[in-house]
Amino acid sequence: xxxxxxxxxxxxxxxxxxxxxxxxxxxxxxxxxxxxxxxxxxxxxxxxxxxxxxxxxxxxxxxxxxxxxxxxxxxxxxxxxxxxxxxxxxxxxxxxxxxxxxxxxxxxxxxxxxxxxxxxxxxxxxxxxxxxxxxxxxxxxxxxxxxxxxxxxxxxxxxxxxxxxxxxxxxxxxxx
Length: 176
Prior knowledge:
The chain is mainly α. It has a domain at 2-123: Tetratricopeptide repeat domain (Serine Threonine Protein Phosphatase 5, Tetratricopeptide repeat, Alpha Horseshoe). It has helices at residues 2-15, 20-41, 45-58, 62-75, 78-94, 98-123, 132-152. Helix 4 (62-75) packs antiparallel against helix 5 (78-94) and helix 5 (78-94) runs antiparallel to helix 6. The model is unreliable at 4-9 (pLDDT under 50).
């Protein structure tokens, strides 16, 4: 609904231009805006942001800044979130609509919290079970437990076979 409201506001502001040069700029901005909406609807948010930027360059309407912020917000990467914050702040500074300005400021606060949480998650050390040395210790402990179990469960009356490990066989005794 908000996106539809932005489209209506953008269209009205574009229609307010009166000069011939303004008509060319308005037509170019409309063309880029239509392209950006198609890209946005297809989920190609970075490309949509670029199209909205071209529209803004053709006709600097603040609502394009808000739409650019939405595109980068939806793209979702850390750099994209920083760009979204920048464009929402820029919209807030340039907008004449107090309600939408307040909404943009709320978006900035929310995105800063999300950005901080993601950065904290990246800086957090991995859990112990994802470290190489943990599984090495587990392997060594399992091997030691296996050897200990085999030795402990061997019958006491069982004597080693002559010629096996530990005792030389009569054939291997040196002759004098």
